[in-house]
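Hi, here's the filled form for the chain we discussed.

Project: internal
Contact: R.S.
Residues: 186
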Amino acid sequence: TSPCIDLSLLSTPVLSFWYHMFGTNMGSLYVDIYDGESWTMDVITPISGNQGNNWLQMLMPLNNFLGDIVNIRFRGITGTDFSSDLAIDDINIDNALGLSDQQFKGNILVYPNPSNGIFNIVMNDIKTETLSIQLYNMDGRLLLQNNVAVANSYKSTLDMREYSKGIYFLEIKSNSGVKRFKLTVI
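And the returned structure, exactly as it came back:
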């Protein structure tokens, strides 16, 4: 359960979190919100069963609680044996504009993902501007930052073979928005 969160400071609040639910006997993940008077149970459709051995992101608008001070509760119900592995990470509440990839003008592909450390970055329909490309580890430490001038399209390779296996975050910023990717080095 979170501490009290004041949503009156946000105009379009969105809850963002990553979840990992792997195992043949996986249970379910629930999200509830307390608005100071009562609990609203299952504000998202419960996520149940094996979701594969990867991290997935959930974005949930909190417009129904706009102006409230809330507590957010995550309930994880595991399965009946050891093959039920559930985790959540990188929980964040922000304005939708700060989280929405749709604000970014243009198309970006990062592949393959997961990878042995070599990722292709392809951008199309990008207006002429300088983009900031940043790579972070799971602790939020900046590992790499490049500024690239782009005119309509861009192709590059991101070589992460020097880094340990694990999860990383790639963030590409433009004047029109931010696009975020979760990268897995295997």
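Let me know if anything looks off before we file it.
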